[in-house]
């Protein structure tokens, strides 16, 4: 019983640290932007994701295509001709650090936080 | 008598592999739309049970056959790589740890297995996509590994402390 409690405490604190990292990541920035990588290279950056109206984007890779939609801080893959469809199943990503991976197409969509300073310079 | 144990073991491996393949197939049909494509990993309950009921080697067999068959039936090469690396890492970690904990702490072994599994999948994702940027998923995956690991571990533990226990294959039974 004691051992159970010990391990519960260890895993509980790891859980809290991870939650802390995620929550801290949400508030330590001004706006969010989405980075789309194809084959390890930055393909496109969508700035100011929160203020985007609904839009869809067709990304052609050498292995196939993905249709990426984004709207008001959320981004998701609506269509893909890849075999396992994990990217579609992922659903809508909106939290900083969330990453949609379409492994067969080597496509990665990542949400990152933009610093206040940077946002000020661009506006 | 020793021969008898081997036959029992092979039969048990067959049954458990079929069971885990079935669970895997059903689980793949659940349309989850949540962070990180997180899965419960219910098939891991069967791997853990195999480890307790028939030993480490049997668990490795069950897992290996399940991964190959699942890839052949439902998967692609990419999904095969994901489950292979995750599965091998998880199995190695659980094989090492299962001797160090007693059966009441099985859920701890399961959590470490789940963490190893997710680490493996993250490594494959980083290698295939060619960017280290997928590492930002790590805290999400760690949380999911702990929660799902506890769930599958407690389920396996419950099965061990149940009448099913009499199906276990022990070396003592063949009069050694």
Overview of this protein structure:
The complex is a heterodimer of chains A (123) and B (176). Chain A is α+β, with helices and mostly antiparallel strands. Chain A has one domain: N-utilization substance G protein NusG, insert domain (mini-chromosome maintenance (MCM) complex, domain 2). In chain A, 31% of the residues lie in helices and 39% in strands. Chain A contains three helices and seven strands; from the N terminus they run αβββββαββα. The termini of chain A are far apart. Chain B has helices at residues 2-29, 43-54, 56-73, 77-98, 106-129, 138-160. Chain B has a single domain (2-170), classed as Arp2/3 complex 21 kDa subunit ARPC3 (Orthogonal Bundle). The model of chain B is unreliable at 172-176 (pLDDT under 50). Chain B is mainly alpha-helical. The termini of chain B are close together. Chain B contains six helices and no strands. Chain A binds chain B through residues 3-4, 7, 11, 14-15, 18-19, 21-22, 35, 37, 39-40, 83-84, 86, 89-93, 95, 97-99, 101, 103-104, 106-108, 110, 112, and chain B through 31-37, 75-76, 78-79, 82, 101, 104-105, 107-108, 111, 124-125, 128-131, 133-134, 136-137, 139-140, 142-143, 146-147, 150.
Please write out the topology.
The complex is a heterodimer of chains A (123) and B (176).
Chain A: H1 2-27, E1 31-38, E2 41-46, E3 55-61, E4 64-71, E5 74-80, H2 86-90, E6 99-102, E7 107-114, H3 116-122
Antiparallel strand pairs in A: 1-2, 1-7, 3-4, 4-5, 6-7
Chain B: H1 2-29, H2 43-54, H3 56-73, H4 77-98, H5 106-129, H6 138-160
Helix pairs in contact in B: 1-2, 1-3, 2-3, 2-6, 3-4, 4-5, 5-6
């Amino acid at each position: 019983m004691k051992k159970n409690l010990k391990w519960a405490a260890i895993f509980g604190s790891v859980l809290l640290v991870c939650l802390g990292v995620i929550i801290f990541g949400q508030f330590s920035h001004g706006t969010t932007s989405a980075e789309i990588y194809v084959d390890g290279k930055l393909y496109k950056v969508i700035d100011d994701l929160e203020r985007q109206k609904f839009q869809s984007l067709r990304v052609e890779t050498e292995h196939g295509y993905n249709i990426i939609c984004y709207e008001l801080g959320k981004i998701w893959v609506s269509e893909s001709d890849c075999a396992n469809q994990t990217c579609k199943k992922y659903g809508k990503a909106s939290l900083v650090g969330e990453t949609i991976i379409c492994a067969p197409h080597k496509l990665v969509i990542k949400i990152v936080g933009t610093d206040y300073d940077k946002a000020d310079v661009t506006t | 008598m020793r021969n008898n144990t081997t036959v029992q073991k092979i039969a048990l491996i067959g049954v458990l592999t079929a069971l885990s393949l079935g669970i895997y197939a059903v689980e793949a049909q659940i349309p989850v739309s949540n962070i990180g494509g997180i899965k419960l990993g219910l098939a891991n309950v069967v791997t853990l049970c195999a480890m307790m009921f028939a030993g480490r080697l049997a668990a490795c067999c069950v897992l290996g056959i399940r991964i190959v068959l699942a890839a052949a039936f439902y998967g692609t090469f990419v999904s095969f790589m994901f489950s292979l690396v995750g599965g091998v890492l998880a199995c190695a970690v659980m094989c090492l740890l299962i001797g160090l904990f007693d059966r009441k702490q099985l859920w701890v072994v399961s959590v470490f297995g789940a963490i190893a599994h997710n680490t493996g999948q993250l490594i494959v994702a980083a290698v295939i996509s060619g960017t280290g940027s997928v590492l930002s998923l790590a805290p999400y995956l760690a949380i999911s590994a702990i929660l799902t690991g506890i769930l599958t571990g407690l389920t396996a533990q419950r099965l061990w402390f149940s009448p099913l226990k009499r199906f276990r294959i022990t070396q003592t039974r063949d009069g050694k």
